Fold each of these.
Amino acid sequence: MGGVLDYLAWRGDLTLDRVPFCPVDALVLSALSYVHFGSLIPGEPEPAVPLGETARRYLALPPGQRGRCRCDSDLDLLRALSASPRFASLGLSCYVSRFVPEEETQFAALAVWLGTGPAFLAFRGTDATLVGWKEDFNMSFMDLVPAQLAAAVYIRDFAGSFPGPLLLGGHSKGGNLAVAGASLCPMKVRDRVRTICSFDGPGFTDYILARPGYQELITRIRTFVPQSSVVGLLLGHEEPHTVIESNQEGLFQHDLYSWQIAGGDFIRLEEVTAGSRMMDRALKDWLAGLTNAQRETVADTLYDLLSSGDARMVREALEPKNLAAALRTALDVPPRDLLTLASSLARLAGAVLRSMQR
């Protein structure tokens, strides 16, 4: 039993022609999408560059010259992939990374060529930027956010240059983008989608759930959540989910490196924890009590306050100087908006208390 890195140590020498691609492999490649590769991966389908060589080139760059990655575990992942016969020879291409604060858009994806078989399209989840988190909040009141539309265009364009079957996947928001993007594609593209893996990805608005594309793809969507999932149960889901054991607690189980694997598969559990069900009820009750206009006001007001200083990353928003800037900005926020924010947070606290009492 172990995590993703243990899986690579145990199974990394078995090539895909010996042991077929599986959901754990999809999680590995979804994690890869978090690395900011920049020009190391071409933006066009051809020529693809080998994954192992690309990982070594990234790691050889001085830290100040390489693109961001989320954590040290991502660097360990690259080291393991560079030495893995199962992954090192796979081709990477079609790398795109768009970050447009003015449009509240954070989107990134890459294509992995799985030998002579299908291609896997990996979508990056929410990064640590305030813009990335704001776009997540926007999902609660907008039919479609820009990243979902970008995912649909990405899948459609790749399908135009690649004739084979398609596998899609992503962790966190990346899982949402994989499902939503495929749902928005034309039928001739959807017909080529073999499987979509969403790893603790948030759900969807009624607009997506009611689309023929989503309904058509339900049997091909494989949703995985950790035992104390919060993110992966948000908003609406009609597809079933698989519960995975994690060695972390609470919200920290969203970390994909905490998910437990034995042999070639996840360690599966019967259901999520009571705490996960409690938070799911509370958040759904809270959102149900807010109109779309109120949700938008809450998200916009909170984002304006947190980004009023020099903060661009979520962790920076909690620095004293940026908290002070948020307090100064609050003086200029319309009282009605502040009241909506305060009352909605009070509603959230009430929803949590009611859920705990059930």
Amino acid sequence: MALFQKNTLPAPRHIAIIMDGNGRWAKQRGLPRNAGHKAGAETFRRIAAHCGKIGVQYLTVYAFSTENWKRSEEEVGGIMTLLENYLEEALRDMEKHRVRLKFFGDLSRLSPTLQAKCREAEGKTAVFATLQVNFCFNYGGRDEITRAAKAFAADVASGKCSAEELTEEKLASYLYSENIPDPELIIRPSGEMRISNFLLWQCAYSEFVFMDVLWPDFTAADLDKAIAEYHGRNRRFGGV
């Protein structure tokens, strides 16, 4: 497959990635699962930097789903620690990278300290526009749509709007992704071929690329290959 050539083809405006395969990567090497998550976090940093270089405006990554709480207490604790460390680095280096952070998901289940750091990162990076990273944490697509429906119903009950005002655009305004374009390209490494409750509303016309590489081994060249495949698709959006 040919590589994406940023000098001749534009990068998709919005790329989303299901960061999958950390646990299997660690198992293959006889390491604890959290070693895989740590390696995956480093891959995320490299890929986010590459996205900024090639002109991607929005990068949405699936970091922790609403179902991931079923994992061991040790593994969940390790993931929380990785997020906290990343946020500390981001707050330190935000001016240098000029990356805006936004969280998709229900953060209320996180510790008060971690919630505060997430909100601090969102607030302090809101002025940057080189690249916006949407970090899906304690996120599920069905949960997002359910929350949006409840929020709209609450507004109807309070008299802020009427039920007749409900349109696709209206409901979308209650999603975490309000005012953010839907992803043109969704990538899932690891060899799995499912979307796992990710961006169910937003992916209606996304192009999917599934790749047989575990996330910690995912490289900028892999991203370029996925973008090249995306450019080879005929996107008709229901037309002829």
Amino acid sequence: MKTANSFSIMIDTSCDLPDEYIAQNNIKKLPITFDLDGASHNEGYWRDITAKSFYDVLRKGGVAKTAQINPETFAALFTDYAKRGEGLIFLILSSGLSGTYQSAQIALREVKERYPECDIYPVDSISASVGIGLLTDLAVKKRADGLSVTETADYLEGLKHRCLGLFTVDDLMYLHRGGRLSKLSAIAGSMLSIKPVLNLTPTGTLAVKDKVRGRKASLELLTEQLKRSINENTVLDTVYIAHTDCEDEALLLAEMVRATVSVRNITVMMMGPIIGAHVGPGALILLFEADMTRDEYEARFY
């Protein structure tokens, strides 16, 4: 039976939460399609291809491409919710990385012309992967606490600016293909074992903030960046670590985080192909709720 505060929570498949969590918490999921060497994959991609084999294909020079969700798909979805009078929060891959959020906005404007009272809230996560996962988990908790769909959407809009995402990658050439580095810088960096450390910016784009030599140094810098973004007495509830087929290093990063800050839970998971296609195998993302906004972090340290 639905109550006044019942609403649906939906994600796209750039969010890397486990299927078990999604099912247990009644979360809906809309797939983003990707192609791997010409073969198309949809929502059930890990049934079609294992994570290990996906990243092995990339290591061997394979090409993966992703496609944004189009406005027509969103319009059909939103119309269905509007007709039923059911509230919806849709947490979407950062508008700084994909046009999917813009597609959702186009669709919502169309649907609101016919159903002006609909309670549908596409939320630009300004994050990716486990950044969307963190916001999803908090949305689930707020729904369980009895907040309305509007109250929960407002809460997420404010909180998302304190969700810091810190990246490092193993192969700079993937960043070059995505337009983040010149080819010369990528080749030179790879030859010198230069490892970039990137942050999700206030607008949800990826930006190279530091470069260090060697993998261990990049993990140390990620840990230091986390430490300087929280207060001395802060106890973090959950830190998320996602990786692209480098679990041993993800577990090492988890140990370094535990040795550096106070944290109740660290969740380590595999990054899916929607983000993995663009960062390549050997990437790591550290995601958590900081004690400052991204704007404040950038102003203080960069």
